[in-house]
């Protein structure tokens, strides 16, 4: 399907007028840039180094972002280099276009970071940017670099900044939950409902929590995080007492970012919150199975990855090939494997 869409777009591009996609002149002349990416939080996070790079290059330009409503909220509050966001869904595309065009400043660049026909047409008939940039997936590149090469084919990871999210003061939310700065670890125990084969077994998370709490400083706590899809997991941790805080399904993205930002470490499967942690430059321990960390893993200098052995679903299939044993490969990662990746000093081990 992607190949078919790609051919359609290539055909349309070859027939489009050159005036729509011509260069806009000097750096100083670029006044308005729009990036577009819907989908999961992680996908959007991986486009942010490009957005930050564009802001540094075009200091006087308005950097704007089209995305889903919940991610738009995060970007508005945590990305100083993004000037404006536009919430988008299939039902409001006409209104979104009208709102974008209500600002009479011409749009210089439009980045279709989906690489989809829909947003090619959205730009062609609505936005009408002076230059159009079309994302093409390259599986051999980390997605952060892949997105950035949409703008500049010579760009590398060395040209991009990994810290792309910031949060304001954390004291009030820490006080609400009896937490102290750098005195707790975050566990992200679920992976949502779309790809359960990415998940590490809940029993492993329980064993990991018990082991950490038994050997570390008694002041250290564990905070369990996750979205509404994972609320059913809360019951597994109800017996741990005051040294654990269960916040699964209870926080919005800004609140989650604040909790992660004050933690010492986050342990997570391949899900959106691991990418938020990376964008905050937090220590990350990632538990990966069918996805490829070299492609979609954390983009930060402080991470460790545990990779499932002998996984036959490499490439992020939407379901496990072993239908009766979904996520079986993840069992090759042990609790002791995770413990070995933790920074003992930062966790105040006895």
Short key terms for the protein model shown above:
350 residues; alpha/beta; Rossmann fold; 2 domains; 6-stranded parallel sheet; 5-stranded parallel sheet; 13 helices; 11 strands; globular
Poorly predicted regions are 14-25
What share of the residues does DSSP label as strand, in percent? 5-15%
Briefly, what CATH class of the largest domain?
Alpha Beta
- Helix count? 13
C-alpha-based Rg, rounded: 21 Å
Secondary structure tally: strands: 11
How many structural domains does the protein architecture include? 2
Mean pLDDT: 85
Amount of helix: 25-40%
User: In which order are the strands of the major sheet placed?
Assistant: 8-7-6-9-10-11
Overall structural class, as computed from helix and strand content, comes to alpha/beta
CATH topology of the largest domain: Rossmann fold
Order of helices and strands: HEHHEHEHEHEHHEHEEHEHEHEH
Shape: globular
Mind describing the biggest β-sheet? 6 strands, parallel
Q: Could you give me the name of the CATH homologous superfamily of the largest domain?
A: Glycogen Phosphorylase B
Distance between the termini: 55 Å
The CATH architecture of the largest domain would be: 3-Layer(aba) Sandwich
């Amino acid at each position: 399907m992607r190949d078919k869409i790609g051919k359609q777009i290539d055909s349309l591009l070859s027939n489009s007028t050159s005036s729509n996609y011509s260069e806009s002149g000097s750096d100083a002349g670029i006044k308005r840039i729009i990036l577009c990416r819907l989908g999961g939080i992680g996908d959007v996070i991986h486009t942010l180094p490009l957005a930050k790079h564009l802001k540094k290059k075009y200091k006087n330009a308005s950097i704007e972002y089209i995305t889903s409503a919940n991610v738009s909220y995060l970007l508005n509050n945590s990305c100083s280099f993004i000037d404006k966001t536009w919430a988008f869904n299939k039902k409001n595309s006409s209104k979104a276009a009208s709102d974008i065009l209500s600002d009479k400043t011409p749009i210089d660049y439009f980045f279709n970071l989906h690489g989809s026909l829909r947003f090619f047409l959205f730009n062609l008939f609505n936005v009408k940017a002076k230059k159009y940039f079309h994302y093409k997936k390259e599986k051999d590149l980390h997605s952060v670099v892949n997105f950035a090469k949409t703008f500049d084919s010579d760009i590398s990871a060395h040209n991009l900044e990994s810290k792309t999210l910031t949060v304001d003061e954390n004291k009030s939310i820490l006080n609400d939950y009896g937490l102290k700065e750098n005195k707790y670890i975050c566990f992200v125990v679920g992976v949502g409902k779309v790809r359960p084969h990415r998940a590490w077994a809940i029993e492993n998370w329980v064993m990991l929590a018990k082991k950490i709490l038994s050997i570390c400083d008694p002041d250290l706590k564990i905070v369990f995080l996750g979205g509404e899809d994972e609320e059913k997991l809360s019951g597994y941790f109800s017996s741990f007492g005051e040294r654990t805080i269960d916040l699964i399904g209870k926080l919005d993205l800004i609140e989650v970012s604040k909790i992660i930002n004050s933690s010492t470490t986050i342990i997570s499967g391949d899900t959106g919150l691991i990418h938020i942690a990376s964008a905050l430059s937090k220590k990350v321990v990632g538990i990966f199975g069918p996805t490829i960390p070299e492609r979609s893993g954390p983009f930060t200098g402080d991470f460790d990855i545990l990779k499932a052995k002998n996984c036959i679903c490499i490439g992020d299939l939407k379901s496990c090939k072993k239908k009766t044993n979904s996520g079986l490969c993840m069992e090759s990662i042990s609790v002791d494997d995770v413990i070995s990746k933790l920074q003992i000093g930062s966790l105040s081990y006895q």
